[in-house]
Design a protein that fits this description.
Layout (H helix, E strand, L loop, with lengths): L1 H15 L8 H35 L3 H26 L9 H11 L12 H18 L1 E4 L2 E4 H10 L3 H16 L3 H17 L5 H6 L6 H34 L10 E2 L15 H4 L11 H7 L4 H14 L7 H6 L15 E4 L6 E4 L6 H19 L15 H11 L3 H6 L15 H30 L7 H13 L1 E2 L24 H20 L15 H12 L6 H9 L7 H6 L1 H10 L8
Parallel strand pairs: 3-6
Antiparallel strand pairs: 1-2, 4-5
Helix pairs in contact: 1-2, 1-3, 2-3, 3-4, 5-8, 6-7, 10-18, 10-24, 13-15, 15-16, 15-21, 16-20, 18-19, 18-20, 21-22
Bound molecules: zinc ion.
Length: 604
Amino acid sequence: MKILFLRAALLAMLTLFVPAFTQAASKVVTSAKEFIAQAEKELAAHSVLAGRAEWINRTYITEDTDALAAEFGACGTELSVRLAKGAAKFDGVKGLSFDVRRKLDFLKQGIVLPAPQKPGAAEELNVIATRLQSQYGKGKGTLDGKPINGSDIEEAMGTVRDPDKLKEMWTSWHDNVGAPMRDDYTRLVAIANEGAKDVGYAEVGAMWRSGYDMSADEFAREMDRLWLQVKPLYDQLHCYVRAKLHEHYGAKVQPATGPIRADLLGNMWAQEWGNIYELVAPKGIGDVGYDLTALLVAKGYDPIKMVKAGEGFYTSLGLPALPATFWERSQFTKPRDREVVCHASAWDIDNKDDLRIKMCIKVNGDDFVVIHHELGHNYYQRAYNQQPFLYLNGAHDGFHEAIGDFIALSITPEYLVQIGLLDASKVPGADKDLGLLLRQAMDKVAFLPFGLLMDKWRWNVFSGATKPDGYQKDWTALRLRYQGIVPPAERPSTAFDPGAKYHIPGNTPYARYFLARILQFQFFKAAADQAGWKGPLHRGSFYGNKAVGDRLNKMLAMGSSKPWPDALEAFTGGRKMDGSAMIAYFQPLMKWLEEQNQGRQCGW
Ligand SMILES: [Zn+2]
């Protein structure tokens, strides 16, 4: 009943606020203001109901909760589509305030794939998008000729070391999952581009790039600039890892020069390489001197105590304790008697103070890090809870993930001493950290070119620079150019390898993940500098530093109300994203890699 009521109310209010261009300009300005006020009211009401339905669904999966969550999801899509179209009607209207213009833009950018107004288009787009997603979800590859599902094959790519089996899994996954999506994806691009035109953008890629307080072209250049800052580090890592794979597998599998075979890197997309750390770690540097999991167990930590420790990091910076409801309503551990989604996430149900995390915490080092990360989302949400609805967001879409990751970077030995987990006498010298840094770089640095090229490919597809018959060729070319990798076997032109990565059929923009990787180190360096940290950056600590907490909170509290450079400046003092902090963080590793790579022919 509530759902029907909400929809009817929504329709009524939207027809009320469609502006007539014959009205006097001041009337249009007023009506834009009213349109925004009404939109924020409706969005807020919807988000609370939808949030509750979704929460119940994720923590108690049944036919019924699936159906309810889907219903609210559809309702939300309908709402955003209508609001985007309503907002587009104010394009070109002069005299709007900064906030009204900004919020209208947010409404227009609120849908990742806009459907055109013409009859049937929204339905067709929806059918295709859903089909692509479920095709991905049901996708299977093979191992030893037997079918293997998505999550199992992903795991197996990280553990199997037989190059023939890796090749079989890689090829079968890309053939089975990607290739059948090609025609659907082609059609989806055409429809969504028409939809983007309807809301005032040249094409979908330009629309995606317009959400960064600069022109779409400037943003593309900005991504390239950041990449060039960090590329030397990637090049050294690539060179070193290739040499180790060559040693391990021999020249037939991995030649000493040229690109790396994509299936050897421990990950289906070669996007993070941490799974093959043991293949490349030289003896003697891998020992960090302590084991976080063992420390947690020895000190009698349980899941709640782990979350309390995470909260303790934030309160040490002077941020407020989490509300009592957080402890009552969160899902900390896996329930014994029902299906739930264990994938960690952070929630803010009422957009004010009803914060929660949903996890299936195990007492281990990984989950200890994840908790610090998830609480970063909660503290961000809470810091901006005084903002109007359309500003309840990160400064741009890279900020939210970067906050949690930046706090997670702070789980250094020094911090573990401060919270009583590690004995001060057990703190290893910073020279012991090469193993740790290499392990981190295998994930964080290795990811960068992949994080960049995902949307580079899509931008070209949406703009038409890459035509459907070039989908595969251009994908493989970008993978070679940026990542320096090649498929384990020749790819036919009928293949569609991009479809075998979730975010392509799932239509999730990807630049944000690249930006988050860059920003987290920038935040970390800013915090360490402000705390007067003098040691090596990767050991930096600002636990307990209220001045850092103050500045951080200024940035968080802005939400998305100001252009992101303002937010960045509030915390770091600078107005540009900057990859040099990441370079500084990994400096000891860079030096070591350069030594290791002496005499090798790097590059591809
Ligand atoms: Zn996150």
